[in-house]
Automatic annotation (TrEMBL):
Main location (coarse class): endoplasmic reticulum
Ranges of biased composition (kind: Basic and acidic residues): 200-209, 239-257
Residues of the SRP54-type proteins GTP-binding domain: 603-616
Regions of compositional bias (Acidic residues) in chain numbering: 273-291
Official protein name in the record: Signal recognition particle receptor subunit alpha like
Comp. bias intervals (Polar residues): 296-307
């Protein structure tokens, strides 16, 4: 009898949904949001749209909206009670998860049973009410019938704040297709970004502890607005996906830069930092049975006698110390734990198996007298295996290739692609800074012609970069220029014009920024394949965020596949390398980095480690091993 019941966050993420018919509900729900909830219109808690009546309840504490929709012609006396009961039950069941705030989208909301129970109870209650003699309404009852949206909001702070917090974005039809645990991938990405925002703001508070973070908590301010993308190539044409008329998003002026950066990025990109061998040896010498993780060590600097004992991965092998010649059977329990440990760090399970196997082979038949011997053997074995996995099939030496291209009087062209919001433009700007530091002048081609604000964001970076490296320091030559043609135009065409202009104007490098797109979005993936086919860049870089773990692996695999499928070339140009961003936010969950290279064989060319121009590093197996061993 009910057509729709949906529970969504004020950020527009649908947590749970029941859909009774195949009717399109998004227009009605969005109309409700726009005309009633956003405006806090007073009046009834029901709203009519087309042939539907929508009734809703807001939960301001957890920032949730509960909406039920049914045919207008129906008179359902239990809806008020039903909404309240569902609201209470949902809050009760998921209060812990909901308190977690941003993590709530990761939760599988299996709410169908409760929903059905409450519905049948409410229907029975309504039947019973109908058979009871009518009583006169109390004053309270009559007030209740006049309740307003404002009165339904369970206010925590004052009214103004509550008003501000009612910011609900449009909801797309597709999201109502998910019942129970179908959290779509984009939701997860959005939530991860909000997690990042939280982290970054915490870091800001911790400024003393981590002086490297120069930037403001960018995502709070600059984070993309939650958006629900079409999953699956559902045949939407490009114009209908155009977002260039949206209100421009902030042009990321939060990206700080200062003169101290100048000259720090000369030469090849530095490796991710790990503790020095000396420190490591000192530690090994000072500890018989424990290895102190890098981070801990850094934070221990300056404390007295700072040896802190922590449980490291090596303790898994403690029980094997002093055993006779080790056999596979002896090792199995430890190997199982090691595998679980690695999987816990986001390492794909077949890679975890492979790593465990190499450890088993190394230890087989050995007598390991001390914990040190076992720890160093395990460490060495895993390092060797990871070096093998992470060693690219082919070398990518951008500086050398740029110089080679320059010798033949042509610019070296790099294209950046990836999902929206992963850090394409930001890391493009960091790479640009690195190139300028190495005396190469750069043309940035603004080919994200979809997202409002994308061009402005690049313009801001161009201004900052030229301020750091002004023409007077480079023989009067402007080191970075932006080639832009605004929005709504064909990105492949703009890239082509930019490359022509770049060649005529003797730029050394051209960096082509492209619009973010979901890996399953066929029209946009076709457009990217076209851009690459017609422009034949020297390097196609996939930008993925470490933050989303193995989702980034899925994106990469699908981008690769789509470029191959839609290229209409017998030898399509697929991804040449990976830029793994937001590495600073993942603590030790480095598994996705390993999987990306392992699965595609493509090298991780750059690792983004923060929000300044100098937060660009190269990945080395040693750093990855360190993170894995914590
Ligand atoms: P795009 O849509 O892919 O071009 O994404 P943006 O370049 O606009 O970046 C989205 C957000 O991620 C911005 O707030 C950036 O400052 C932030 N960001 C990009 N790279 C990194 C990184 O390596 N670490 C951190 N912490 N944030 C990053």
């Amino acid at each position: 009898m009910l057509d729709l019941f949906t529970i969504f966050t004020k950020g527009g993420i649908v947590l749970w949904c029941f859909r009774g018919t195949n009717e399109l509900f998004a227009p009605s729900v969005n109309a409700l949001i726009r005309s009633v909830i956003l405006q806090e219109r007073t009046g009834s808690s029901t709203f009519d749209h087309n042939n539907l009546t929508l009734q809703y309840k807001l939960d301001n504490e957890f920032e949730l909206v509960f909406v039920v929709a049914y045919q207008k012609i129906l008179q359902l006396s239990y809806i008020d009670k039903f909404l309240s009961d569902v609201h209470l039950e949902f809050r009760d069941k998921y209060k812990n998860e909901l308190t977690g705030g941003v993590t709530r989208s990761f939760v599988n909301y299996n709410f169908s049973n409760e929903y059905n129970n409450i519905l049948s109870q409410s229907e029975q209650w309504a039947k019973l009410q109908a058979t009871m003699p009518k009583k006169m309404r109390s004053f309270n009852d009559s007030m209740k019938s006049k309740k307003t949206v404002a009165s339904m909001i369970e206010r925590k702070g004052d009214e103004k704040d509550a008003k501000k917090s009612v910011k609900i974005v449009d909801i797309k039809e597709e999201v109502f297709d998910k019942e129970d645990d179908q959290n779509d991938k984009e939701d997860q990405i959005l939530v991860n970004r909000r997690k990042l925002a939280e982290k970054m703001s915490k870091k800001k508070g911790d400024a003393k502890k981590s002086p490297k973070v120069l930037a403001q908590p960018a995502v709070d301010k600059a984070g993309k607005k939650p958006r629900v993308w079409e999953l699956g190539g559902n045949g939407k044409d490009l114009p209908s996906l155009d977002r260039s008329k949206d209100k421009p998003e902030d042009a990321r002026s939060d990206f700080r830069y200062d003169d101290e950066m100048i000259g720090t990025m000369k030469g090849v990109i530095q490796d991710l930092e790990v503790e020095s061998e000396e420190e490591e040896e000192e530690d090994n010498a000072s500890s018989d049975d424990e290895i102190v993780p890098v981070k801990q060590k850094q934070s221990n600097v300056g404390t007295t006698n700072s040896k802190q004992k922590t449980g490291s991965m090596f303790s898994i092998f403690k029980s094997l110390v002093g055993s006779k010649n080790l056999s596979r059977d002896d090792m199995q329990p430890a190997l199982d734990k090691l595998r679980d440990h690695l999987i816990g760090k986001n390492v794909a399970s077949d890679i975890a198996h492979k790593l465990c196997d190499s450890v088993a082979t190394k230890l087989d038949g050995k007598v390991l007298g001390t914990f040190d011997t076992i720890a160093s053997t395990v460490k060495m074995t895993i390092t060797e295996a990871l070096v093998q996995i992470l060693s690219p099939k082919r070398r990518v030496d951008i500086l050398r290739d740029c110089i080679e291209a320059k010798k033949t009087n042509r610019p070296y062209v790099m294209t950046f692609c990836g999902v929206n919001g992963v850090g394409k433009s930001t890391n493009l700007a960091k790479i640009c800074f690195w190139l300028i530091e190495n005396n190469l002048n750069v043309l940035i081609a603004a080919c994200d012609t979809f997202r409002a604000g994308a061009v402005e964001q690049l313009r801001t970076h161009t201004r900052h970069l030229n301020a750091l490296h002004p023409p007077q320091k480079h023989g009067g030559r402007t080191m970075v220029e932006l080639y832009e043609k605004g929005y709504g135009k064909d990105a492949a065409g703009i890239a082509m014009e930019a490359i022509r202009y770049g060649k005529d104007s003797q730029f050394d490098v051209i960096l082509v920024d492209t619009a973010g797109r979901m890996q399953d979005n066929e029209p946009l993936m076709r457009a990217l394949a076209k851009l690459i086919k017609v422009n034949q860049p020297d390097l196609v870089l996939f930008v993925g965020e470490a933050l989303v773990g193995n989702e980034a692996v899925d994106q990469l695999v699908k981008f690769n596949q789509a470029l191959a499928d839609y290229s209409s070339d017998s030898n399509p140009h697929i991804i040449d390398g990976i830029v793994l961003t937001k590495f600073d936010t993942i603590d030790d969950k480095v598994g996705a980095a390993i999987s990306m290279t392992y699965i595609t064989g493509q090298p991780i060319v750059f690792v983004g480690t923060g929000q300044t121009y100098t937060d660009l590093k190269a990945l080395n197996a040693k750093a990855v091993v360190h993170a894995l061993m914590k």
